[in-house]
């Protein structure tokens, strides 16, 4: 691969990661909005169990995809940092670009994802078990 292809791959993987996080955020907002608006009932608890299981599956697959993207970005970053060009002028430019590329640590990203997953599951159950106080009738 040449330098331009490496940089393109790096940013394509960055875009993929943003897409996966976008899916995640959309699902989370939808679930929390749904559970925040439906009324308390015995069926709500059954629904919360099913949705929790489904969300856990989604979160696992989404987290796995994000982990793979972070790993690919990290490897691509290493290739960019070690790329050598025959032309010294081009190499100076390559070195400048290489210094600006940063990749998040996969452990930090996965830790954040798992913490978010647990927070979402907790929020679903708080919204499921929380019973709204009826509005007092005003005379």
Describe the protein.
The protein has one domain (3-129): Orthogonal Bundle (Topoisomerase I, Chain A, domain 4), CATH 1.10.132. Helix 2 (42-82) packs antiparallel against helix 4 (106-129). It has 139 residues and is mainly alpha-helical. The N and C termini lie far apart (77 Å). The protein has helices at 3-37, 42-82, 88-100, 106-129.
Mean pLDDT: 89
- Sum up the overall morphology in one term: rod-shaped
Q: Into which percentage range does the β-strand content fall?
A: under 5%
Number of strands: 0
The ordered H/E elements are HHHH
Total count of helical runs of at least 4 residues: 4
Assigned CATH class: Mainly Alpha
Provide key terms for this protein.
mainly alpha; Topoisomerase I, Chain A, domain 4; 139 residues; 0% strand; rod-shaped
What is the strand and helix layout of this fold?
Layout: H1 3-37, H2 42-82, H3 88-100, H4 106-129
Helix pairs in contact: 1-2, 1-4, 2-4
Quick overview:
Helix content is 81%, strand content 0%.
């Amino acid at each position: 691969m040449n330098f331009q292809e490496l940089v393109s791959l790096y940013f394509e993987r960055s875009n993929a990661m943003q897409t996966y996080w976008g899916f995640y955020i959309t699902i989370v907002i939808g679930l929390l909005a749904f559970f925040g608006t439906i009324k308390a009932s015995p069926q709500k608890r059954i629904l919360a169990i099913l949705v929790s299981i489904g969300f856990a599956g989604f979160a696992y697959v989404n987290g796995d995809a994000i982990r793979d993207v972070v790993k690919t970005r990290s490897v691509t970053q290493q290739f960019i940092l070690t790329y050598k060009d025959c032309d010294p002028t081009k190499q100076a430019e390559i070195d400048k670009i290489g210094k600006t590329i940063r990749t998040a640590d996969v452990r930090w990203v996965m830790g954040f994802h798992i913490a978010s997953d647990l927070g979402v599951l907790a929020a679903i159950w708080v919204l499921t078990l929380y019973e709204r106080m009826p509005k007092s009738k005003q005379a």
